Amino acid sequence: EVQLVESGGGLVQPGGSLRLSCAASGFTFSSYAMSWVRQAPGKGLVWVSGVGGSGATTYYADSVKGRFTISRDNSKNTLHLQMNSLRAEDTAIYYCARVTNYHSDYWGQGTLVTVSS
Amino acid sequence: DIQMTQSPSSLSASVGDRVTITCRASQTISSYLNWYQQKPGKAPKLLIYAASSLQNGVPSRFSGSGSGTDFTLTISSLQREDFATYYCQQSYSTLVYTFGQGTKLEIK
Fold this sequence. Notes:
heterodimer; A: mainly beta; B: mainly beta
């Protein structure tokens, strides 16, 4: 059974940093691209970042470029999102999702990040 | 970046109604268009991929069509469990998969 479990969310002050993780199981992790999608309270889905199966290729939304870094550890079946210089507008639930054939077929339950003083 | 625009933003309908939601891309995306359903407090669920392919386990009352820049999601006969928010997503740009703003489907 495919499972994606996010962790690492929490309350952080503006300008601070946080590292999210997504533990994957039930599939060959290195064979799939992965992505992060966020959802601010009461708002829609926003694609944040994606990474190829090997980790060599990464992509970012303009709103997070230069502040967020996506990475993966294929030996540990884990996806990461390092978030620096956090702003109030980064407050959201962050979901990790598996990418296959140009769509996301499995999603985690999400982890809440709150940026506030 | 490719922009996705859904219409309407919200919709009221009754059980048994036929409902159509539209999605327009700011440039041609061939058939690289996906539809997701999201219920409150839950992760999104894939319904349709590649514009018209039904994800395994999704009821056949859901269907998708379109190519190029204009796409539709149709629910042929609304069931109570279909009341949710629906999002389109383009996957034409490599791993930069932007979403539409969502369509909230409510009970009339």
